[in-house]
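G.,

No rush on this.
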Amino acid sequence: MKLRLVPVLLTSLLSAALLFGGWYSYRQFAVQEPLQKIVSSYEGVNDSHITINRKEVTLKLDLAPGTKLRELVQYVNTEGSSAIDGRTLKLDVNQHSSALLDEYWDKAMFSVAEAMESRKYTLIPAKLDGLIAEYSQYKDVTATTEIDDSNVYVSLTNGKESKFIILPRVPGAIGVWNNA
């Protein structure tokens, strides 16, 4: 029996194209697109980009000032549970910060780090509000803190600019917060 090279290659290429095309279509239209609709429909999400890997789902978000991060994470986890399917959810929030918000966070970071390290999370809102009361240049800054099982969410806004900080409750190795 003699095999012909052209029909074998053509069949192999067609099978590979069908297999990978089907896999890509499933991933795009059955997993990523519904999750994209869920995230985009949440109030306060200006733009979003989703990357799905084997172990994690990364949401690159552009949020409006005043968006509740904890509620967004909870909403995505419940509504998009079939798309997330046991993967960890990782947020990457675009910062629309200003020099004033950065300076405010720099002054608050030591107190917040101390509260995180000692696991006294109720001190965080008090420390943030204390800075607003102590320094008159921060009178327009609004600091909001929220907490869930895995993170502490700090949102700083002063009208049109915002800074979102996600602090993991599980302490990592010694180092800096990579998203602060």
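When you get to it, here's the other one too:
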Amino acid sequence: MTALPPDPDPDRTPGLEPGGGVRPGDTPPESGSTTEGLSRRERYPSRVPAVITFILVVLVTIAVVGLVIAQLTGIAKVL
């Protein structure tokens, strides 16, 4: 099975001038593409994991600072 070329055959494409250019105002022939283009909107990633991670980092930081203060003041001797 032979695959079709990605670009149209210049000899059989109407509207092309010699050398492959097009006349002013003409639309160039459609070429093959390897991307889908912007046919659909991209979804933005959810911010929920980032917010949860931020909250956990803040809570752990507060706990560590609290333990350091407790150790320095002697409150943690009960633990």
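The chain has a mean pLDDT of 75. DSSP finds one helix and no strands in the chain.

Enjoy the weekend,
O.
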